[in-house]
Design brief:
This protein is an alpha/beta fold. It folds into 2 domains: 183 residues, Rossmann fold; 194 residues, Dihydrodipicolinate Reductase, domain 2, CATH 3.30.360. A hairpin with a 2-residue loop joins strand 9 and strand 10. The chain is globular, with a radius of gyration of 22 Å.
Length: 457
Amino acid sequence: MGTRQVPSRRSFLKTVSAAGSAAILIPSAERALGYTSPNDRPVFATIGLRNQGWEITGKSFKFADFAAMADVDANVLGSTLEKAEKRQSKKPEGFKDYRKILDRKDIDAVMIATPDHWHTKIAVEAMYAGKDVYCEKPLTLTIAEGKLIEKVVKETGRIFQVGTMQRTESDQRFLQAIALIRNGRIGTVKKVPCGINGMESSPVIPEAAVPEGLDWDFWLGPAPKVTYRSLPQLREGYGGGVPLFSNCHYSFRNWHEYSGGKLTDWGAHHVDIACWAIGASDTGPSKITPVEFDLPVEYKDGNPTVGDRYNAATKFKIQVDMPNNVEMIITSEGDNGILFEGTDGRFFVNRGKISGKPVEDLKDNPLPEGAIEAVYGGKVSANHTANFIEGMQARKQPISDVWSHNRMLEVCHLSNIAMRLGRALKWDAVKREIVDDAQANSFLARENRKGFEIKMG
């Protein structure tokens, strides 16, 4: 790729225009990209660079050029810029403040992989700045944030892909699962247990000095102002190199201030596929019942009473009443994956396997030709970024659209609210509010910290 000049947004949009306005996604990733020269490749930027930030960026170099990156941790930013330079032979410009990326006119799309509590603010402001958006899951911290994103997508016409890559990748196992159900291979679906594992608890985590290079106040952003906490032991493996116990890097998912525990982490994957399979992508549950659950700290009126330990549920079994009398169970026990149980059979699927008699029967009774494509709405893309860029070209929302994502994520958010309050909740899927429970409804939104309000328009 050499030292070519970064293409302008106008050049990219000319490419899109030349592709025509038909609302049909172009089949293969290579054809979908459709670029005859490097100067026609879209220009991306990534905001939030640890772990998934680099994961989604690394999978996207073959489809796009990265002109800029941002992270509030100078150490993460510096090391990622070096890795990016090795991948694309040109070093992206680095920023601590993501708003400098949004000010650039040459960037077509941003990939967001910050902690969850930052997603909505950055995504909304990016869309108003004329950028298409790829945002990691879970998309939101609250149900109200999901409604806001839907409003802005509609208002701006931006293309928005949520990072629920199981819809595209994992060797199409999840697409095959949905095709089995749509083709009647287990009869009428009656029960869908989703195994999403539990969260760890923590010891008391003391206040500590903020690591050099980290802007702690900016990391907190919209969340309440608190002191940085950590223990000296370091995490190994995925997400390694940071404290094993902290209220920051990697461990943020264990805190309701920044995320929703396993319910919105793995739930955003498996509950998503379950809702898609049973045809509940544009509706919602009627009742959420916390059958069993363990919270690692004491709660009062739905809020943790201490701030020095993880507070997301460690174990849980949630019963969700879904449309057409389907019972969904979200559990921290058993295998990570989804079990579909119907009147004529059952099978299990996760990222590593799809198994059960209906799957074995495919040897003698295969799915009809085109069954997988019918689920996906066309030929399956090479990866999730390729599908995003196809949508950018066609100006059509990609496979993981914000509307279906928010509908399934409401199940996860409501499950957390039900556990925090210790009671079942009835949900009005039309009004998108909890029935006859003002206290529970107060958890559907959260005000951003002063100075970090969302800039609208």
